[in-house]
Design a protein that fits this description.
Helix content is 60%, strand content 4%. With 141 residues, it is mostly helical. The protein folds into two domains: 2-86, no CATH class; 100-140. Helix 4 packs antiparallel against helix 5.
Length: 141
Amino acid sequence: MVCLEISRLGRNTLEALRVIQTLNEHGVSLYVKNYNLETLNPDGKVNPVTSLICTILLEIASMERLTIKERMASGRDQYIAKCRKEGIKMGRPSNYRKSEDAYRQQYSKEISLLHKGISLRNTSAITGTSINTLRKIKELF
């Protein structure tokens, strides 16, 4: 089995090591391309050096993931604090609504199908419009 990046095997170190262990138990060698590592030797036995390197690489990847998550949360918290301090409203603008004419122009096919009595699911399948949008259209017309 070929894997380009070792961190793609699982969300954390233990999960990825379980995947490698399961593959080894079934006699399947995992080849990690970017490090040129193979988990089983040619004789079918586990390569202990590769196991050690994989464990270290997986732990580093887990640490990187945690660092990225913390940085994202910190940036988000700083942005929220800044918006609150400056009185900036976050999210969709409260005046963000289409007029009925805009709905009629954009969703003319959907409106005609709904007037004919076709269900929301079928109309969605035909037009590709989401069911929630079709519910809004049905309420308006």
